[in-house]
Each structure stands twice: as C-alpha cells, then as structure tokens.
Amino acid sequence: xxxxxxxxxxxxxxxxxxxxxxxxxxxxxVGFVYLGPIGDLGWTYQHDQGRQAxxxxxxxxxxxxxxxxxxxxxxxxxxxxxxVRAGNKLIFTTSFGYMDPTLKVAKKYPxxxxxxxxxxxxxxxxxxxxARWYQGRYIQGQIAAKMSKAGVLGYIGSFPIPEVVSGxxxxxxxxxxxxxxxxxxxxxxxxxxxxxxxxxxAKALLDxxxxxxxxxxxxxxxMQIASERGKLAFGQDSxxxxxxxxxxxxxxxxxxxxxxxxxxxxxxxxxxxxxxxxGGLDTKMFEMAPYTNMPDDVKxxxxxxxxxxxxxxxxxxxxxxxxxxxxxxxxxxGDHLTDPQILGMNFxxxxxxxxxxxx
Amino acid sequence: MELIEAIILSVLAASTPLLLAATGELVTERSGVxxxxxxxxxxxxxxxxxxxxxxxxxxxxxxxxxxxxxxxMSLIFAAxxxxxxxxxxxxxxxxxxxxxxxxxxxxxxxxxxxxTPAPHLYIPYLTxxxxxxxxxxxxxxFVYFSIALIVAVWWFLxxxxxxxxxxxxxxxxxxxxxxxxxxxxxxxxxxxxxGACAGLAGAYLPxxxxxxxxxxxxAGRGWIALALVVFASWLPGRLAIGAYLFGAVTIxxxxxxxxxxxxxxxxxxxLPYLATVxxxxxxxxxxxxGSTAPAALGxxxxxxx
Lengths: 359, 305
Description:
The structure holds 2 protein chains of 2 kinds.
Chain A: H1 2-26, E1 28-33, H2 43-58, E2 62-67, H3 74-85, E3 90-93, H4 99-108, E4 113-117, E5 126-131, H5 133-147, E6 152-157, H6 162-176, E7 183-188, H7 195-207, E8 212-215, H8 221-228, E9 232-235, E10 248-254, H9 257-269, E11 276-279, E12 286-288, H10 296-311, H11 339-343
Parallel strand pairs in A: 1-2, 1-3, 3-4, 4-5, 5-11, 6-7, 6-8, 8-9, 9-10
Antiparallel strand pairs in A: 10-12
Helix pairs in contact in A: 2-9, 3-4, 5-6, 5-10, 7-8
Chain B: H1 2-30, H2 38-56, H3 59-83, H4 88-107, H5 132-137, H6 141-159, H7 161-171, H8 173-178, H9 183-209, H10 221-231, H11 236-258, H12 265-285
Helix pairs in contact in B: 1-6, 1-9, 1-10, 1-11, 2-3, 2-4, 2-9, 2-10, 3-4, 3-9, 6-7, 6-11, 10-11, 10-12, 11-12
C-alpha cells in the first residue's frame, strides 16, 4: 500500500514538474529582488504591489518570481545570478545598494535585461528607473505651512544623501511659498527602518514644538506618534492612514505597477531598450494619497498645485533657488534646476536653520 | 521643565527593552552560557506577543505569549548547547537567523494591524504632580517590572544560596559538578530565564513602544543588550545604569539635533556605541577589584559519568 502511494506521489510530482516546464517555456519569466520583507508596509511592500499589478495585467503571458530580504552587497550578486539561472529574462533590482551587483551580473549575461531602481549606473542591458518624489514633497510643504499653527515643521531624515536633502529643500520651498517665515527642525536617525528610533525622533520633534511630522524613513511609527499626540503627519512610500486616521494629511505613494507593466510589455514586443527613466506625477510613477484631515481650501490648494506640477507648469526647483549662504544657485536648466543638479543636491535652501551633517 | 519631563519619559521607554533583555542575558552568562541569540528570541517574542494581544485584546496575555515564545526559542538553544554540547557562539548566531525568519512567518498575518498600547498607570493627584508625577507614577507596567526584575536578580545572585550556586557554575563548572550540583540543569534554568526575558523585551516593542508589528522591528536591540552585559561587567547594578545611560544618550542625541546643536548626526548616532567601547577599555585596564567575565563563559560542559 505504502509503495503504491509513493509511486502515485512520484508520478504526480513528475507530471506536475513537466507541465509547469511546458507552460514556462512560452511564458516570459520576470524576476524581482527586494531589500526588505514584502510585509514592511513601505518600500518593498510597494514594489510588490507593483509586481502584483503586473501579474494581474499580463499574468497569462508572464511568470514572476521574487526574492525578499536580500541584503545589499555581495549577497545581492548571488541572488540576482540565481534569478538569471532560473531563466528570468527581465530582472528588477529594487534598491540603491544593488547598483554594482546588478551591473556585474548584467555584464556577465548580455542576453538578460536588468532594471535597477534609484541608481545611476547603466549598460546596454541595464536600465534605471526612479521617481521624482520631490514634486510630492513640494505639495506637502504647502499643506504643512497652511496647517501648522506653530509654524515649525518636524522632519525625520534617514541619511543625508542628495535624494533626502532635495526632499527637504522641496518641502521648504513649497512651505515658504505660503509662509516665508516657516521653520523646520530636522533629525537624522541614520537608518531607513527602525520603528523605535523613528518614534523617538517624532516624539523629540513634537516635544520641541514642531506640530507637523514629515518623514523620509520607512515605518509608520512617526505617523502613529503624531496620531497619539493629536498632531498631523505625512506618510511615506505607502498609505499609512490606518496608523493615523485623524493625523495623515496625505502620503507619497510609490506606484510602480504602470511602469512595470510598460517595461514588461516592451520586453514581450522585443522593443525593450536600456533607458534612464525618472518619472514624476505626469507619468504616475508615484501618486499622492487622498488629501485628508484638512479644510477644503487647503485641499483645493494642494490639488491645484498637484495639477500644475503634473502639467509641467510648476517646477518645484524654479529659479532663483537661493542657498543657505544667500547665494543664488546657478540656473542651468533655463528657468529651473537641471536633473543632475537635483540628483546631486548637497546644500540647504535659505530658511533652513541647520547644517547638513558632515558638511 | 515640560521638555525635561518629556525627555525622561522617552528615555525610560527606550531603555526598558534593553534592560529587560540584558537582565536575562546577564543571568544566562553568569551561569557560564553565552547565548548570542538574544535578537532572535526578542523578535519571535515581538511577533508572538503582538499576535497574542491582537487575538485576545489583552496586553497581559500578549506579554505572556512573548515570554513563552522567548522561552521556547531558548529551549532550542539549550537542547543544542547543553544537550548536544554544540558550540555556543555558532548556535546563538543560528538562533538569531532562525528567529528573524520565524518571526516574519508568524507575524505575516499581523502586519498592518493595530492594537491599543499598554495602559499607563494613573493615580489621582500623584500622577499630576509636576515634573516627577508622570515619571514616577505614570509609566506602563513593563517599566516598573523591568526595574523590579533587575533588583530581584541582584538579590538572587548575591543574597541567596541559589545565586551562589549559579555563579559557581559560571566560574568553574568542574568544581560545581564535583560538589554535587547539576551544572546542566542549573544552566538550563538560566538559559530559559534569559529566553523569557528576551521574549518579554521583544513583546514590549509592539505592545507598548510602537503598537504595531513589522518584521525586523527589533532593529538590533538584542545585540545592544548583549553589549550592555559586557559593558556592565556582569554586575546587575552597572547593567541598570548602562541601560538607562544608553537610552539617555540615544534620546538626547535626537533632541540635540532637533535643537540644532552643530555636531554631525553621524557622530551623535555612534555615541552610545562609542561609550561601550570606552567602558570596555577602562574595564580591561582596571582589572583589579572589578568583576570580570565568568571564568567558564562560553565553554561547553559534558559531565563525566
């Protein structure tokens, strides 16, 4: 009896593997490498939402695989190569620290296409993509200036890299367009993810008199602290309204789905090319969560600003941009700063009473 | 004045998980066992503690779930290192990796859920005393329990026969064995106590500190607890001071940044760790008088028959 069962099981297994092989042969295999767990409710969660949107749209033509919790560094190279060996023809690596590992594997396998998120190194078979989150931060700055009673914003930064610094600057330029005397207190936690430390930073900012919390870290802890204290806050990466139903004003939502779908379609058509895509509100590379917990006039202002940025009428880094030392920043892009200027931003704009750490 | 009160409240909350986990590890190490799996036991405690509180709506049941989960993890460690006499360092590291994975699995269904945080004590009049009211009479139960626990551990280690035997096992397991004490049994209890404390410390995070569960939310606190035990040179009194000092430096550096003190944040963030290194150097220089590591720490013991 046991023997027959075993034989039946083996037969089933064999049948199973053969059939999946057969179907896999005509399906395009797409791989994803994630930094965190898919349940982090932030960065990785949003990338996986994008993957799920992709499966929903093109599920009959493709097969997706993902690897989560892949540390940045040499381990990443092994993970990416593993996906190549498993037959994936298009691989998305979704964190800045995967840049060099992706490039290395890309050079080794010229027939496989790679897409790296938020980096700057490219190759014939390696494209890059990222989003212009600073546009959303400008809108948040305007809302914050309207909603703050104290005139002091609290900003939790992760690491003082250009992406975060340009976010702070965009926030302040937006806020100053409403209230020229707005102040910001900045606390760097030197981590992307540590709920306890992020909560402590939020508490410190509120204790020191800020009444709006903005974060460039990944956990919903700061939102929850703001909510507990009856203050307002902005979410990050994903919808965090669950953690602050009465606190969240809006949130920058990373919506990778449309991009993933368009790139996989290109791969299926054979029109895939290595590109550098830095999408903004106009291409829906990110979206703003519904504007909540604010009066109608502020909501209207936010929506108008969003529309103006989407149409290209409003540039957050419109010249003149005045740096902290009072000097105007060289205007290389006609009437606004160029992309390289924003991508390499390492100065604070006027009105920020602080120093970039280590500068 | 209000700012000072707020800072002290934050410091107490930030220090409590470190103190709880380090207290358990101190007892484990005093018995001669080095369990590097504190981070793993903590994160499983966090997942199970949150799950328990979410399903029953009770913080106490959540805390108990955390304790049970941490103890269960420590039993795996005990089975390997005490039962099979496997290398303690390797087993401890493996336990951490196991814990991080296991907690993700256990907690997968809890991500995004919210619970009511642990209630804070409120005594009419007393809690409203300015400055000290909320600090002394307005904490959650974990804070009071962690202080009571470290006092109890001190009393046990230095004022009871049981404590003396436990320390004997840690300093010279052959002698303790020769005197007729069951070294392995005593170490098993010490490892289980360490696991229970780590589990409770982990549960504190989603039950009181940041009331939600996210994989990896312990963010290295287990490793800090391990460092604190060394920092305290295995003495309960110094351990309490070390834990609060560490919490204080962490919180004060955040406040210093918010106040615009012109010191680079990277330096401020490294301060607590720098303090640990400095204390280690001072300790190794002043060997005489101060208590150092239990002599048998980290060595396996196989009783001869």
